[in-house]
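Notes to self after the Tuesday call (sharing in case useful).
The group wants a holo model before anyone commits to mutagenesis around the pocket. I volunteered. Ligand is inosine 5'-triphosphate. Logging inputs and output together so the record is complete.
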Amino acid sequence: MRSATILIATANQGKLGEVMAILAGLPVHLTTLEDYPDLPVPVEDAETFEGNAKRKALHYAALTGCWTLADDSGLEVDALGGEPGVHSARYAGPGCDAAANNAKLIRELSDISPGQRMARFRCVIALAGPEEVLATASGALHGVIVDQARGTGGFGYDPHFLVPEYGMTTAEMLPEQKNRISHRGRALQAVRPAIERLLAGSSVAGLND
Ligand code: ITT
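Result:
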């Protein structure tokens, strides 16, 4: 089995912690963007999570020469026609933080009854080398949006995302618990065999989900 370096390409510390925890144990050296402080950021203006994840992974892989893992993820709310979707990070405007995004979300849902608050987190992971995307995988987690923030874990929309089967928001879950069921956790578990194949030196064609 080859040994390799994989760059985890995210500037979001909440995501970074989750990705590092889920990939722990793979025989790879994981690096982060902190090791490449001067790289330009990619433009994330694709209309799909998949498009943005591939673009982000290829961008950093081409600049660093490393296999690069990037995700694009976000929250889709049925009553908002799937918004904020690919705009999740900047829902309340450029430079806005999670508190502002959450405040906007709750404001937009003010007329929507509790029974109509269905939502899902979605994540698409892309693994790229400098010249091509090597694998992609996706995952989703279904829940409902609650007005009252609950919990201090996670990041982003987690305090308002209730998973009914667990009676908890994703911000109330322990990190291991969120990682086991989350959109990102599922996508990473799905892409892991492709990474193992690559390390073993074989092609990963056909392993995309
Ligand atoms: P990078 O592009 O650097 O990875 P980002 O935060 O800009 O960081 P995205 O473009 O993928 O990442 O936006 C994802 C947004 O979706 C994120 O900022 C949160 O607002 C939301 N989000 C995604 N996954 C989430 C999760 O597990 N819990 C809560 N919110 C999440």
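Two things stood out.
Residues 109 and 172 are 22 Å apart (CA to CA).
The pocket of inosine 5'-triphosphate is lined by residues 10-12, 15, 44, 72-75, 88-89, 101, 121, 154-158, 170, 182, 184 (CB under 6 Å).
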